[in-house]
Amino acid sequence: MAHTSNYLNDEEVARAMNQCVDTLKDGIGSVTLEQLKYIGGGDVLAPELLELTPNYVERKIPTEFLEKCLLNADGSTKPGSKRVIVTGMGGCGKTQLVRKFIENHGDLFVSVFFIDGSSKETIKRDFTEHVRALGGALSQKSFEESMRFLSLPVQGGERLLVMDNVDDPKVNISAFLPKWKRGAVIITSRNGSHGQLNPSGHLQLDVMSPDESTELLIRGSGSTQLSGSHREAAAKVAEELGNLPIALVQAASHIFRTGCSDTTYVSLLKTSRERVLSDPATNQIDMRYTTAFAAFDASYSILPSKAQLMLHLLSFFHRQKLPVDCIGFDANNGFSYQEEYLDRGEEYERGREFLKEIFYSHGKWDPAEVESIIGSLRAHSLITVISTETTRLLQMHSLVHEWARLRVPSDEVVHFQDAAIRLLCCNAQESNYAMMQYLQLHVQALSYIWETMHVNDMESFGFILKESGDYSGCLRLRERLRSVLSDRLGVDHHFTIVTSVNLAATYRQLGRYAEAEVMFIEVVKQRTKLLGFNHLDTINASANLADIYRRLGRYAEAEALEVEVLKQRTRLLGVNHPDTLRASASLAATYIQLGRYVEAEVLDAQVLKWRTQMLGVDHLETIFASAGLAATYTQLGRHAEAEVLKVEVLNQRTKLLGVDHPDTIQATANLAVTYSQLSRHAEVERLQTDVLQRRTRLFGDRHPNTLLAMWSLASTYKAMKRHSEALELARKAHLGYGETLGDSHPYSQQVAALLASLTAEKPVNLG
């Protein structure tokens, strides 16, 4: 015992014992008896660098970012302490990017420490083993001693420390950073919040470029075919996989292993997507994850439960442009807003309760809860947030979107589906027009259930599509809705008539004026019979019919009805009621067609004044009034005043509705008219070409608005002496008007006159 006591009291032995205890406490490697007896008695190997994939493709922009942060222009290391934080979703290539940097520039550093940052334990272990591997007196250093050692200056250079995959939010990364005055640290993580450690050195790594992705597929699949068609096929695979590196490696591995073509692989993605995307890569060494889905699963496992639910909910929407503000729009009312035609089933309450489960805190709506959830998803690079002038938009990578949907248990799908429907329907309100340009995508994403959804939700979805300018989608819903209500309630029921009005309005927006006229005439008859001539609903029906008469070129009939509607609304509602102002604006539009411009100006100016006072300058109704007055100024030859108003209308509609909304396109066409009057032909051509392309894409080449765009551009070509182009468009417009509106329509006759003048002209020979 005395001998043992003396041995343990020996200073050198006691120090070795303490280091052993520290090592065991920190969970760092193992200690042999020889190491207890002799300081430096055993060799300690430093953790090895992960291998660089043999098919690595240089990523130009991210590589240049790393080099700019750490190196001088001459290739030497920058002075001082340097930090670069590389963040991005799992599988986007963070580790490989850094590994390539080490391969290219590792010799500039005295030593390179590559640390597994996945937990506190692995960080401590790797730090300590790297220091001990330097040998000599360092071979028995504890973690704390290793950290102090790393903070010391290095003779003849500096060290590079790489902390890889620091994803766990519970790890305080700052506590593990050396306190050196010269040296470089690179951190990789899915946690975007680590970028706060050095915002100017924060690289948010996205997916590969299309060219880089194609190159990776070609190299990885072992292909020797480098023809243009082969590259095109590889590019299609890359596009289908969203250019995500880990998914591209999977694809290359599958193609190499099976010998299938790129075209076959795309077909497999369409028919057996989940199975193919779960097929691990076998052609790489040291991959942390062998599939994209495994990388996503790792991120999912450390998310808070509400963030997990939110991620699954997002997968039922379109993967892009979901407004954050749509979550809270009706939240204070318990997500209860709906159009009420028929009684609800259990899906309504089920959707409401599920949204509350995700977004409520302690039984109440709490905006901070939403921000916390978004923060968690963003921190793990599972979503991105795009800021616009009016809102923030949530977006997901296509594969994350699919994975999140596939991970929903089959018995829970209906809950997320009901919640998604409820959230969209809550936003289908007139006061929420700024959101409509974004919600259309998400309504379309649920088109597979349109036929079976509740009629109340059909109307809400139809409203969103109508407001966003998707009239074809709106038509599909409203035809189905009217059919259901006609069968359930009868054709003369108030709700059925309301759906008839909405359906007729959709026909009007699609340029199907004859069908709209038939329905509006029937509605006038029904409402006159059921409600009487002076009921507001009957008056509204007459106003709709008058609008159709004007579009059909029957201006006298339109005027007669509109004068009567204005009188009745003024008497029943007052001069400044919104419906009375709409009647004034409609009559002004008819006066313009009749050439009564002074009378139109009086009405338009009055409407704009009232709407500005009641609604403000940025309300859609006020903007519509500005457009009406601008059109009148054009007819009166007051082009400078017209231009000011039209430019403002275009800017406002672009902001509130988006560039592809029919009303924004109309504003562009209106501005082109004024530029034409000012002989600014180059600008006119640019705007009118844009209008024609957008209308053709939205409506086809037989919609009256598309035909008007053809006619307008033909007139511009004529003014620019481009005879053949003018003649071609004029012929198309003349044929289209004859088929859709008839040869007697005023527009048909005016286009016929243009065509006749072009036919009579001889082409100008510029040679």
From TrEMBL:
InterPro entries per UniProt: NB-ARC (IPR002182), NLR-like (IPR053137), P-loop_NTPase (IPR027417), TPR-like_helical_dom_sf (IPR011990)
Residues in NB-ARC domain copies: 79-218
GO molecular function list: ADP binding
PANTHER family, alphabetized: AAA+ ATPASE DOMAIN-CONTAINING PROTEIN-RELATED (PTHR46082:SF6), ATP/GTP-BINDING PROTEIN-RELATED (PTHR46082)
Protein name in UniProt: NB-ARC domain-containing protein
Native organism taxonomy: Eukaryota, Fungi, Dikarya, Basidiomycota, Agaricomycotina
